[in-house]
């Protein structure tokens, strides 16, 4: 059954004027003119076919139907105001829901979260890892960290950085490698979400096709990294995701050749969350961390 509702602006004007017994005071509360309130009330009276006020030179007075109508609609408007206030408090709460690709979350984001907590202890992060691009319209996620070509219509998009790709392995295994052609006798490790990385690098250096090499695909980049650290094979590394392993010497670069990744890392969010300070704080922090990552790579 279709609800038969009067114009809501007219309803608001009537409720304010009836509660305050004054068109002028209602106008001040609503931020409009007294003439506008009078016109809205007249519109409502025409829609209802009922006289709601008696108008006098110095003011107005509710009619009997007007008093009855006020008694019925006031609780409904109070309920709407209460629901709106409650929803607004939730939307402005210090909770930020973030979605990220598993490898990026594990290797780049999570190791840095302690710094975010020190800066914003009042903000609660809820982090989920998704291999597929999340539709913000059908989930409650606020911010996405994605490795894509950056084409996300309807979202605010900011590039974080673009990885450079190069092989890495255990130091002992590196001693056995004599140029890219020697990869033919090794096991190539990679994250299945970035299944083209090895092919991209091999084509860049002009060496054997990926299909001619032994390989193992992992569902998590951290698993591929740990396997390389333990000497299982040679990993195609993303520089921003293996910086700790390179710094510690757990992994080394057997060859100097590298190539930019086809996709870059982005932070994205829908415009409707921009009014929430907690979301903007997280986005600003991520962008600052990304600038630091870029500077480290450039240095």
UniProtKB/TrEMBL annotation:
Classification via PROSITE patterns: HTH_LYSR
InterPro entries: LysR-type_TF_proteobact-type, LysR_HTH_N, LysR_subst-bd, WH-like_DNA-bd_sf, WH_DNA-bd_sf
Pfam family, one: HTH_1
Keyword Transcription regulation set for record: yes
Highest taxon listed in the record's lineage: Bacteria
Keyword presence, Heme: no
Keyword terms of this UniProt record: DNA-binding, Transcription, Transcription regulation
HTH lysR-type domain mapped to chain residues: 6-63
Family of this protein: Belongs to the LysR transcriptional regulatory family.
Name this protein carries in UniProt: Transcriptional regulator GcvA
Species: Fodinicurvata halophila
Organism lineage: Bacteria, Pseudomonadati, Pseudomonadota, Alphaproteobacteria, Rhodospirillales
């Amino acid at each position: 059954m279709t609800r038969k509702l009067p114009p809501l602006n007219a309803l608001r004007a009537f409720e304010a004027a009836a509660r305050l017994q004054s068109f002028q005071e209602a106008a001040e509360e609503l931020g409009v003119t007294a003439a506008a309130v009078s016109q809205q009330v007249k519109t409502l009276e025409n829609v209802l076919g009922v006289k709601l006020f008696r108008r006098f030179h110095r003011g107005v007075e509710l009619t009997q139907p007007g008093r009855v109508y006020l008694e019925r609609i006031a609780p409904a408007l109070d309920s709407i105001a209460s629901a709106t206030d409650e929803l607004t408090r939730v939307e402005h709460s210090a909770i930020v829901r973030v979605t990220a690709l598993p490898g990026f979350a594990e290797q780049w984001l999570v190791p840095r979260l302690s710094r975010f907590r020190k800066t914003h202890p009042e903000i609660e992060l809820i982090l989920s890892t998704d291999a597929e691009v999340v539709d913000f319209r059908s989930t409650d996620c606020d911010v996405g960290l994605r490795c894509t070509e950056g084409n996300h219509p309807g979202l605010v998009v900011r590039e974080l950085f673009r990885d450079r790709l190069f092989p890495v392995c255990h130091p002992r295994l590196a001693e056995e490698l004599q140029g890219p052609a020697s990869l033919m006798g090794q096991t190539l490790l990679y994250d299945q979400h970035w299944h083209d990385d090895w092919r991209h690098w091999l084509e860049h250096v002009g060496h054997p096709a990926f299909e001619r090499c032994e390989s193992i695909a992992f569902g998590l980049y951290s698993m591929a990294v740990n396997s390389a650290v333990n000497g299982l094979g040679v990993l195609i590394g993303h520089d921003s995701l293996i910086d700790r392993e390179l710094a510690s010497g757990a992994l080394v670069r057997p060859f100097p050749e590298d190539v930019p990744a086809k996709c870059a890392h982005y932070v994205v969010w829908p415009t409707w969350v921009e009014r929430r300070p907690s979301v903007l704080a997280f986005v600003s922090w991520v962008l600052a961390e990304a600038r630091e990552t870029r500077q480290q790579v450039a240095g």
